[in-house]
Amino acid sequence: MIKASHLQTFAKVAELKNISLAAEALHRSQPAVSGQLKALQESFTQPLYERKGMGIELTELGKSLLPYAQRQAKLLIDAETFRLQMEYDQVVTLKVGASTTIANYALPTLIAQFHKDYPAIKVNVLVGNTQKILHNLTSLDAAFVEGRVHGIKNTGYYPTAWKQDELILIMPEKHPLAEVEEITLESLYDYPLIMREQGSGTREMIELAFKQRLDLEIEPVIELYSTESIKEAVRVGLGIALVSKLAVETLPPTIRWRSLREEDRIIRPLSMLLPDLGHNTHWIRALIR
User: Fold this and answer.
1) pLDDT at 245 over 70
2) What distance in Å separates the CA atoms of residue 203 and residue 196, rounded to the nearest whole number?
3) Which of 148, 219, 229, 279 has the fewest Cβ atoms within 10 angstroms?
4) What pLDDT does 90 receive?
5) Does 85 score more than 90 pLDDT?
6) Alpha helices in the chain (DSSP H)
7) Which of 3, 85, 1 is CA-nearest to residue 278?
8) Distance (Å, rounded) from C-alpha 100 to C-alpha 97?
9) Which domain holds residue 276?
């Protein structure tokens, strides 16, 4: 039987790639850490790691075990945090990750209401594109992302549909498409298109729509890292763009927006990811209710 404490030690050694440094971080002696690694290794017939100079390097088996060890280490930390909160009434801090569009246009209202209801609870938000948020997933109490969710197997987190969002077309007020009765996806291909950077959930959905529906690859006239930058680029005439309908309320008056025709509309999920076992999950549900 594998012990939870051995997995926690393995995760820390894998993180620091050094047994001595891991012992310091865990406030244990080096022989104690080495002993726990040896006990864990005895549960497997193949090696989990190899010594490289003063450090260690995981084998393929060790790399496969690591997500489970990281999950167990987080559970132990969560359990201790929960104990401190309950026993000593410590301040609760929620760590939330949100892709850029959600962070800019959906979360502020929710957080403002949450602070009115629970003023003693802090909310820290990590903002980035979907790829960045998923990369940092295991350090979060919850994540809110746009588009498809990849690469979360063995993380201990599960996705659930939170909201639906539509990507709408924005353009300068005197753009030729502003007067078109039904705007098709194919018609956008004739104009300079401004897009988010690679790794953005919005960009992925746009590229997927052009590829699956029209078998077209698109090349943006410019890549920008936020919807606000895209809106400004549209305003000054650099091109047109597809952005979240959540951003409509903050459009400047010189920008027009339109939905694509019914059969070409791009509807995407906004997903919430929660840990299977999270001591702050009840607060996250209070945040989005």
Assistant:
1) yes
2) 6
3) 219
4) 65
5) no
6) 4-16, 19-26, 30-41, 60-88, 100-105, 107-117, 130-135, 185-188, 201-214, 227-235, 281-288
7) 85
8) 10
9) 93-162+270-288
Alpha carbon distance 273, 131 (integer Å): 13
Assess whether 120 and 37 both reside in one domain.
no
Return d(Cα 74, Cα 4) in angstroms, integer: 11
Distance CA 34, CA 289 (A): 47
Q: Is the dihedral of CA 186, 190, 196, 197 positive or negative?
A: positive
Q: Is there a single domain that holds both residue 174 and residue 250? A: yes
Give the sign of the dihedral formed by CA 91, CA 95, CA 101, CA 107.
negative
pLDDT tier for residue 24 given thresholds of 50, 70 and 90: confident
Collapsing DSSP states into helix, strand and coil, what is residue 91?
A: coil
Structure tokens at 201: 């959930």
Give me the residue label for tokens 């990849």. Answer: 150
Task: Answer yes or no: do 109 and 251 share one domain.
Answer: no
Distance, C-alpha 14 to centroid of its chain: 23
Nearest to 287 by CA among 56, 46, 48, 124: 124
How many whole angstroms separate alpha carbon 56 and alpha carbon 281?
Answer: 35
Q: For residue 114, which of 94, 99, 132, 128 has the smallest C-alpha distance?
A: 94
Q: DSSP assignment, residue 111?
A: H
What does pTM read for this prediction?
0.67
Nearest to 144 by CA among 184, 97, 82, 194: 97
How far apart are alpha carbons 191 and 188 in whole angstroms? 6
Domain count, the chain: 3
* Structure confidence by residue, pLDDT tens digits, 175-189: 999 999 999 999 999
Q: Give CA angle at 38 (37, 43), nearest 5°.
A: 95
